[in-house]
Amino acid sequence: MTTHSESVVERPSAGLDSAQKISRNLLLARRSLLPFLLVVELIVFTLSSNSFLTVGNFLNIASDATEVALIGAGMTLVILMGGIDISTGYAMGVIAWLVAYLNGVQTNPVLILVAAVAVGALVGLINGQLVAIFKIPSIVATLGMSAILQTVLFTLWDKTDIFSGPILEGLSRQSKFFGIPTLVLITVALYLVLYWVTQKTVFGRSMFAIGSNREAATLAGIRTNIVRIAAFVIVGVTVALAAVTYVGRVGVVQASTGGSITLLAIAAVVVGGTSILGGEGSVLRTLGGVAFIMILQNGVVLAGVPPLWNGLMIGVVILLAVLLDGIISRLNSDQQGSLA
Amino acid sequence: MKNTVTDSNHLPVLVAESISKSFGVTHALTKVDFSIQQGERVAVMGENGAGKSTLMKVFAGVHAPDSGIMSLNGDRYSPSSPIDAIASGIATVYQEPSGFGHLTVLENLFMGRQETSRFGILDSRGMAQSGRSLLDSLGIPSKLLGREMRSLSLAEQQLVLIARAVSREAKVLILDEPTSILTKSESERLFDLVDDLSNKGTAICYITHRFDELDRVADRFVVLRDGKNSGEISHPDRNKILDMMGSRTMTETKNEPVSKDAGEDVRGVSDEQLVVKGLSSSGHFSDISFKVDKGEIVGLYGLIGAGRTEVALALFGELPIDSGEIIFKGELYRPKSSQDSLSSGIAYLPEDRKIQGIFQFMNVGENTSAAMLRSLAKWGVLSRFKERTIVRDAMNAFSVKAAGTGALITSLSGGNQQKVLLARLIATRPDLLILDEPTRGIDVGTKQEIHQNIADLAKSGVAILMISSELPEILARADRIHVLHEGSIVRTLERDEATESLILEAAVGGELD
């Protein structure tokens, strides 16, 4: 025994401190990912193109961002609860077709808006039921929904692009209110409303609780199914709003409309700093993520880089953010351990 | 206590010195020393949360210690993984059999080290042969080899896992409460097997809570308390061991009148808060009947899988009830959901704090108010002022040690997290409180505080149903104890007649002697 006692090496609780330090540094890295990317992006694009850093270009970016921003806001709620909705793109395509069609046959703008929101909410309701009641993982449920909607859009489109003006003058790309594009005002208003909902209401608090620990939420008497369904319905509504602004802004609906927007919205949410694992994040952070992604899209074009690189960069940034989420959460649960 | 006198005939196999391990803010082990010799049988004792399992997991390569040093047969030992530990000769059999249920006993025995012929093809015949001789040598019937693991009794599974462990030429065999799910005769069979192994030179590390088997299983008793060595002894002196465990204080309070009186002066109305008659839920439990009076603490004891938690969940509205009736506060009650139960005055403290209790990304205040959000809101909008007041009151009532209501819940110790969960429930002003393992994995000091809280709640007239697998806790705290076995109440013991062995006998399925 004594021979062993002599060989005792004191490593005074270094383990704990360094583990905590690593975890804190990673969290810091996660938090500063977005500001860092934004600064790099602004510097690079300013240097590479003269027309990048102008008021006009930034107003352009802000208008172009409308649909990604609107859907990203709704998407944040679903991701906060540990879910995801990948049907948003083709849902927007289908609703946009409907809006353009109804506008073409001279329907009352208010009715068009109601119809769009109703279809969006219905899609969200079905998604929510599949996930909350039938317990299908949200990625699978909404993937199925996405495939169905893609076919619906293709069938409706029937080899004919459908052209339409905005349903209201205020929804056009040029429309401004006190010098600020109306589309930007609509986006900002939606973010403020959803931010208030997440921070100040029982519904919002319940969403964070569900994202943090669904089983504990159920046992604490939170109506988890209703809250989860409601979040999918809200996504559906934001998709409907996006479809309306899309028609006003772009003016044409094709078979591929909306196809790429889901990825951009999810990217905005996770790059913004909402954890893909749920429980942590904020609607306002997503706005930062939207800024990064839309500036990237714009700057790459102005700099004359082939748009192919766009996808590469967005993909890398999503993976990086999600990777950090995963590592941080693993470190945290290691530290809590289990003392059973 | 640091240097054990070494018998000159025996060599220390495993020596651990000054082992420390922390999980976040919780110090699971602080400078723990341990050594075991060839063929020695050492029992490791301590309250739940004392660090026994963590220490064993350090040996088994599951956790890497933060500091300290280990040696195996004189060589430096620092396993990088459980596989590494097994290869070095440290085998562990965990409390609940953890085999592969859908595979045969033979496949289980050779999992991870299958014998192959050329080209990597499994050598089934060879394995069957060595499997048979392995089981024969341990006195386990070899006809089990072809059976699926899940078709075996728990005891048989346990024996197969021990066989698997020793077949890898274990120098040290760690047994984590192996008899907690076994009947008396099954335990005897296991003891014989262990004796046999120890005679052949395998060192046995034995974790147990059962005093009645102590003299049968070990030559030396090492006691841990709050993650530190608290002493060791070479004969199983119950009182001395309890002293070292820090459990004496708890056991001694047994005679203190706990409650009762409070219930009686509640306006002469019937005392009965909850009456359960013939409650059944298929596949979980059947024909459960008991009652809980105001101010009474009723204990529910049973082994894992006996249906304790299921009864609690059914009362709480989270498990469907097939038949039977519940009378709550004098009226027929049929729980529909957890929301329903909470608003009717039934609160449930879940069994697993981390998985079912805390919201790890939320702060202490948000964790406290989670079960009463709707009463803090008007038109769905939360009143921060109301929330802050109620949270502060609740945290004070349980003297939660936290940096403030804004502190992250994960920065609190396990005991304080548990207090937060209790505060969450009490804030809903329940009439019936169901506590599922209220002090699991909590240090001795906080445990006593929580016991006091529970006693105070009972005194204030709350009916309490306490589920616990800790015998000292349930013996000391419950006015009446119902013992569950395979989904039925097999025994009901009043406070003054309950003893450890009576409860255990009933829990493993009879065998009254």
What does it look like?
The complex is a heterodimer of chains A (340) and B (513). By secondary structure, chain A is an all-alpha fold. Chain A is built from 14 helices and four strands. Chain A has helices spanning 2-6, 14-48, 55-64, 66-80, 88-104, 109-132, 138-157, 182-200, 202-212, 214-219, 224-250, 261-272, 283-302, 308-336, and strands at 162-163, 176-177, 180-181, 252-253. In chain A, the strands form two sheets. Chain A has a two-stranded antiparallel ribbon. In chain A, strands 2-3 form a two-stranded antiparallel sheet. In chain A, a hairpin with a 2-residue loop joins β2 and β3 (180-181). Chain A is globular, with a radius of gyration of 23 Å. The two termini of chain A are 31 Å apart. The model of chain B is unreliable at 1-8 and 251-268 (pLDDT under 50). Chain B contains 19 helices and 22 strands. In chain B, the strands form five sheets. A six-stranded mixed β-sheet of chain B has the order 6-7-8-3-9-10, with helices on both faces. Chain B is α/β, with parallel strands linked by helices and 513 residues long. In chain B, α15 (384-397) crosses α16. Classes of the chains: A mainly alpha (340), B alpha/beta (513).
